[in-house]
Here is the input.
Amino acid sequence: MAALNTLGTTGRVLLVDDSPIALEAIGSRLMESGLDVVMTTSPRESLGLATEGSHPFDLIILDVMMPEMNGHELTRRLRSNTRTNNTPILLLTSLDSTDDRVNGLVAGADDFFTKTAPDAEMLARVRSFISLGKMRAQLQAQHEAMARVMREPEAPTPPQARVEIIHHMPVVSERLARAVRGSPVGGEFQLTQRAPSQRMATSDADLLVVSYAVALEGDQPLLKRFGFDEEAPAILVVDETESTSRRVMAFDAGADDYLTLQTPMAELAARLGSALRRQRRQRQLRTSRDRAMLVAVTDPLTGLYNRAYFHEALGVEFRRAQRYKHPMTLVLLDLDHFKQVNDNLGHTAGDQALREVSQRLRQTARSTDVVARHGGEEFAMILPETDLEHGLIAAERFRAAVDGATVHGARGGSRALTISAGVGCYPAHATSMSELIELTDAALYKAKRQGRNRVCAVSVGAEPAVAPPASTNTPNSVLERLRRLLAEDVEGPLTATRTAARMLHEASAPGDTLHTITSQLRMSTDEVRQELLRLMDELSRAVLDAGRTGAPHGEQK
Here is the structure.
């Protein structure tokens, strides 16, 4: 299942049942688990809430037997509406017949459970499908942002589906193969069978039908590799006998469905068809997104999203966070000492540094995060469904991923790479997108001032929104620029020291000690460089201390 395990059980659910008693019993269990539940006894009212309401749902749960409109018909109407055609739908029934299950799946439902199902099993299934709904919503949001930037038509229907069966019993594997061939999409797939001993690191299948042992047991359980990954195939677990505890474990590990060998062939075929339909819808969204991305919304040097897409995606995610009342985090990152890389190692090395940082950020980010080159050596990341605490953890992961990377010059020489990061969160820090960008940029500047290669969060009210203008030619501002230059010149050439001396020389008054020392420093040799740097640092501190106490500049010693 393409979903994020970190999404937990938070989400918005629409629950429809004509029985007020059943509605209250099930709704209370869902709300106790942390879900936002909207309940109604009217199918027609639920149709309006789902398709026209101001707040979309992550999951819709429908009773099957309702007098005004049964759950199957309501499912078909929801599936025909663009607002709900991708929203996961679970059918709730007191019946337990194979025909009832098959009809519901054919109508477009993703799954169903009986009203007497154990709480643990019901909540595991609900958690699984809420994660699926949020993943689809994020993919749809990214797709919409792409479409606005690209003005591209919808992606074509995905090609023929691929199904792979992995089971240790050949007779069971063959039975499952017959069920796939008898499913509603039986003529639209390629079927292969594999023995469990044939271990695989990746799979290009759309649907994996696997035994419980392959999925969850042994040294390399399949769900551990594929269970929560956007690019992974759908996974159906087949167990020998029914077990509630094993069913819950399978769903919590990311399985799309859990079946037993006692499942009737017709239902087995319908469930396989339903899983394939879900996977094909998700693959179509990914294909559309990726196609547009490759054409126009990526930065040609780094392969990341470009600035145009970043701002469009940030708007989409910010509005979605407001609508769902969920947090989102913005991270702005900057490559430290990038000018030194270009000046000392050459612009080819500078390009190499940008590509190296980009690759490490992309490999560290989640599949639903947006990673962009914001301009020059600055990067931006949108982390949906992420509060400040987890945003800081993620930003520290990005910083650590880059720390230690090395770039080499064409004519020799090398430099270690680091990044600084600012972290801002909605709604903790800002109520508008522009405010979030401004405050996060100030946090990035704070990380630079505090020594670089670090992460700083927004500190509203304690930090200036913008940095002081670099052109201000006061002693304090010149000395601050000097400190930044010297911090970059740990092993740099003597020319940088002379530049620093010129800056101090121009900011000091003729005749004072600082003016004299900096005149000598500008003409110094490398042998006296370290001692002069020490003296200059002491004098710099004296200038700053005198400035704080109001002493005239000419009295500096």
The chain has four domains: 1-151, 152-297, 299-457, 475-555.
